[in-house]
Amino acid sequence: MNELANFGLTSSMVDNRESKYKVLLVEDDFAHETLILRSFETHKQYQLTSRHTLADARKALVHYLPDLIITDFRLPDGDGINLIEQFLQNKTCPIIVMTSFGDESIAVKAMKAGASDYIVKSDQSLIELPVVANRVLREWRLILDNKIALEQQSRLTAILEATPDLISIADVDGFLTYLNKAGRRMLGMTMDEDINKIRLVDFHAEEDALLIMSEGIPYAIEHGMWKSNSTFISKAKEEILTSLVLITHKSEQGNIDFFSTVAKDIRSLRSAEETIKHLAYYDTLTGLPNRNELLKQLEYEIDRVRRNNSHSALLYIDLDNFKYINDSLGHPTGDLVLKEIAQRLQAEIRGEDILARLGGDEFVVILTELSNDSLEALSQARKVTKKLNEYIARDIFVENMTFNLTASIGISMFSAGADNGHELLRFADTAMYEAKKAGKNQFEVFHKDMSIQIHRQLALEHKLRKAYSNNEFVLFFQPKNDAMTGQIYGGEVLLRWNDPENGIMAPGHFLDILESSGLIMDVGHWVLKESLKQLASWMAMGIWKPHQRLSINISTRQFQDEHFSHSVIRLIEEAGVPAQCVDIEITEYSLINDLKKSVAKMEELIRQGVSFSLDDFGTGYSSLSYLKNLPVSTVKIDRSFIQDITIDKSDEALVTSIITISKNLGLTVVAEGIETKDQLQILKRFQCDYVQGYYFSKPVPAIEFESLLQQ
Ligand code: C2E
Ligand code: CA
Ligand code: CA
Predict the structure, then answer these.
(1) Ligand nearest to the CA of 504
(2) How far apart are CA 71 and CA 64, in angstroms?
(3) Which of 237, 433, 557, 561 has the smallest number of CB atoms closer than 10 Å to its CB?
């Protein structure tokens, strides 16, 4: 019952019914009616309702739905055939027509019209009417069941045809007897293509076909069902990975009737699975193995090296100043640069080497299968590293801009004694850190002393904290001279640490640590305060003229502090010096992080009279075009360009163009690091405004600087 209801079909005529069959009897002849009613009395499954005219019958049928109609053909108000027509159109219930003797031709007409049966009225036939009714109802039920079955089948077929998975039926020999629409589409067959000579295995990839024949079918025959992932190859040679179920259908006797197959295209599922796997082990930006994957491969490689007694090297690559590209030009541009670097590295290493991205601007290369001789292997590793450094340093063109990046690389040989991948990475990282300290664009090979070095760093940080509280920092001063006249135009304050152990130390030894530890905030504040105090005292002494400017170096962290401008203004007020005598030396790196904010901060100070010099100009990320947007009054050409200006034509060209453009923008130009007369001559020729360097004076303590001022 439920099953039928599921398919939207209802029938009151199903087996084992408990309710009675309702029969409408339409008979105007009283004697016949009585006889019929009596003949049905012993058949308790029937419940009869009598009507005597066509009109009454019709009226009854408005609300009354019989399971069977038994009607006389001739009624006082018309033909019983009218009832048939009305009823059989809707195929609601069977009708038995009764005719009088001699009316057989009419009976045939009634049957043609759709009556289920007829009887020719006689006493005998009327008594046997229940038997006829039984047969008619049984047949009707068969028809109805068949109809339900047909409808059910067409619905099932519709489902099979609509489902996105391949569904097929095959005979015992594997030849298809049915293949649904999705199956045809999957395999590249047209809807009218004959499938009878086709076996599904013909469409499987060779290996899979073998597996199905040797394992799948026998297993399905024994256990009823076999499941596996299996690849089809369509007519268009497309590979379709499916999750496949093969089912054996057996008769009650246990013989195989047919096979059916359901195959679901899981390519997208698989690619999602793979994507997730990929995400866990590969870097999305570059597609390179990430740290997880690297560590996996590293363990494997360490093992291999141990087994074969061979040599491999791990290179820890960290881009210098990459952060500034990211900060100033945004991550999308930074990403493009990283991709470019990844491609360069990949192109330079051999197939058997491994390149990974640890994150940020850090890459790792594993050089495998180096020479069996340890010294030779080391020299190979150095050679490759040097080459990588060179490739990284080549111009990078991204979004119509040209960048110059360098990298610091740490090398650790596998033979350095690391126990595992983590340790090996740490070794190389330590060496990289050393390379960075040695200046950018360098590489270092790890050796055991380096870990000692790291400990020294920590000890140094500790010492610097003490130095600050013990007041061991001092200020040195270096004059800036007018290039033409040689007169002192101002000076730069340079920090020194009077280390009780080692004497006077330049910032190169400790500035990194001041910055990384955050100590620079305190020390920087102290420098500002102390410099301004010194300036006030020189002004009071009358040896510092109001047109002269004292330049103070400010580190990025200091400048980026929210209260920077205010604290400078306050310190100037406290010292009681004119702001016009104060110049702040700052690098582009400090500004580009948030250019708008930086400019606002600078302008706050500029309104007071403070001026700004752009320090180390020409190194790293230098853009002449944005110079005009910065409220700086001076550009300081970096020492590295002055160094070789007499011998290196490209340095000379660069310095000229910096001077020319700066002057066009109304900026003053200072060159730092002048050590020789020749350098000075060239700068004079280029009309550089001011010069600073050992040629005039080394940085000196305040007392000595006083005498320079007095000259
Ligand atoms: P800088 O701002 O580029 O300073 C110029 C550096 O060049 C100074 O090194 C100076 O001694 C050196 N120098 C000047 N003339 C010559 C020359 O003719 N030849 C050579 N070879 N070197 C010359 P110094 O004093 O060791 O300072 C190094 C860096 O430390 C400075 O570079 C500056 O960035 C930073 N620094 C110094 N004092 C401070 C400070 O008070 N605060 C901050 N935040 N940084 C400071
Ligand atoms: Ca400086
Ligand atoms: Ca400088």
Answers:
(1) 1
(2) 15
(3) 237
